[in-house]
Specification:
By secondary structure, this protein is mostly helical. The chain is 72% helix and 0% strand. It contains 3 helices and no strands. The longest helix is centred in the middle third of the chain and has 44 residues. It is elongated. The mean pLDDT is 84. Keywords: Membrane, Transmembrane, Transmembrane helix.
């Protein structure tokens, strides 16, 4: 839903012969942003999942009687499930923070940039 208004804002003041160049420019930026965001989210997910799994394993080591005779595979599965839930919560909080920052940035973004006037 945000692509069309962004495209209209980016290409509104261009001459028709510059259309193909603007399209390539816009699609390049959009493609790079998608790849960068995916890589960043993947790295953040891996980092938080490993952190939470380590913390949960440390807590299990502190309370060995709480294992209740579970097998190692079942215990590993439970730790990984809990780490995934905690990672999802962290990523949701991170995305909410980014959204709030972008909303706060709206008043500072110029809505229209006029071209320089020709010297007379």
């Amino acid at each position: 839903m945000a692509v069309i208004p962004l495209l209209m804002l980016a290409t509104g003041g261009l001459a028709p012969q510059d259309g193909p160049y603007a399209s390539a420019w816009f699609n390049t930026i959009k493609g790079f942003a998608a790849v960068a965001a995916t890589g960043l989210l993947d790295a953040l997910t891996t980092w938080r999942r490993n952190t939470h799994a380590s913390q949960l394993a440390d807590q299990l080591g502190n309370f060995p009687l709480s294992l209740g005779g579970e097998s190692t595979a079942a215990l590993s599965r439970r730790v990984q499930e809990q780490a995934a839930v905690m990672t999802s919560a962290d990523l949701s909080l991170c995305m909410a923070g980014v959204a709030v920052l972008l909303i706060l940035l709206i008043p500072f973004v110029a809505t229209r940039i006029y071209p320089p006037r020709a010297a007379t």
